[in-house]
Amino acid sequence: QVQLVQSGAEVKKPGASVKVSCKTFGYTFTGHYMHWVRQAPGQGLEWMGWINPNTGDTKYVENFQGRVTMTRDTSISTAYMELSRLTSDDTAVYFCARDPQRGKPIRMRTGVYWGQGTLVTVSS
Amino acid sequence: DIQMTQSPSSLSASVGDRVTITCRASQGISNYLAWLQQKPGKAPKSLIYGASSLQSGVPSKFNGSGSGTDFTLTISSLQPEDFATYYCQQYGGSPLTFGGGTKVEIK
Q1: What's residue A14's pLDDT?
Q2: Does the pLDDT value for residue A58 go beyond 90?
Q3: pLDDT digits (tens, 9 = 90+) for B22-58
Q4: Beta B19-25 vs B70-75: how paired, if at all?
Q5: Element (H, E) at B7
Q6: What is the rounded average pLDDT for all residues in chain A?
Q7: In terms of CA atoms, which chain B residue is nearest residue A117?
Q8: Nearest C-alpha neighbor of B85 from the set B93, B75, B76
Q9: A64 pLDDT band (50/70/90 cuts)?
Q10: Which of A25, A71, B29, B87 is most buried (CB neighbours < 10 A)?
Q11: How far apart are CA A12 and CA A27, in angstroms?
Q12: Which residues of A touch B46 (CB under 8 A)?
């Protein structure tokens, strides 16, 4: 069955970078776009962008431009999200979520399959 | 960006109650709206997409409606497992945006 398994919690100092992984199982990794969503403690959901695992093409929310990099390793069916120049405002749980449409989605959206979340804490 | 305004931000209800949550988009999004449920410490769970299409395996007590800018999620006969936070998400425009959430608590 489809599963998205994320890497473990991280504690980082301000100014550092963090790289979160999302290893996938049970489907053709290159067949579905992958989204990244984050949630600050006690707050709502914030979409960060997507990566096309087939081509490596990405789209990022303007707020994260220049700080976020989404990559993938097709040999191990894993997507990555790296966020640099961390501040305390980046303390959040980061989720990967598979787009439900196979191939290039007509309308991008998160679907049924989400990772379990990775808590990133930024603290001096 | 398309702003999604959810109301109420929280509500208290009893087991067996019917509850309604509304979501308003700052511009028309046709029916490109999803509803998600999130319980503490868990990833969101997709309930409805296309404003009214139930995700496979989701019970029919969840009902979504609306089009354009105004949308509604109704939960009939609230059960203990339904107490959670609910989010709307629009995918009619980029970036994808979420409502602020509605926390459904036990009265």
Answers
A1: 98
A2: yes
A3: 999 999 999 999 999 999 999 999 999 999 999 999 9
A4: antiparallel
A5: strand B4-7
A6: 97
A7: B43
A8: B75
A9: confident
A10: B87
A11: 33
A12: 110-112
Name the DSSP letter for residue A114.
B
Single out the residue of A122, A87, A113, A121 nearest to residue A6, CA to CA.
A113
- Spell out which residues of chain B touch residue A46, defining contact as CB-CB under 8 Å: 98
If residue A20 lies in a helix (H) or strand (E), which one and from where to where? strand A18-25
Q: What is the DSSP string of A58-73?
A: EEE-GGGTTTEEEEEE
Closest CA to B91 of B43, B40, B30, B7: B30
Q: What DSSP assignment string belongs to B38-98?
A: E-TTS--EEEEETTTEEPTT--TTEEEEEETTEEEEEESS--GGG-SEEEEEE-SSSS-EE
Per residue in B65-102, pLDDT (tens digit) is: 999 999 999 999 999 999 999 999 999 999 999 999 99
Give me the pLDDT at residue B70, please. Answer: 98
Q: How far apart are the first and last CA of chain A?
A: 40
Q: Provide the sign of the torsion angle of the four alpha carbons A65, A22, A115, A92, taken in this order.
A: negative
Burial class (CB in 10 A: 0-12, 13-18, 19+), A59: middle
Query: Pick from A49, A61, A114: which is nearest to B44 by CB?
Result: A114
Amino acid in the structure at residue B95? P
Is A101 at the interface with chain B, CB within 8 A? no
Residues in chain A, overall count: 124
Cβ neighbours of B86 in A, within 8 Å: none
CA atoms within 13 A on the CB side of B84: 21
Cα torsion at B48, B50, B52, B57 (round to 10°)?
Answer: -40
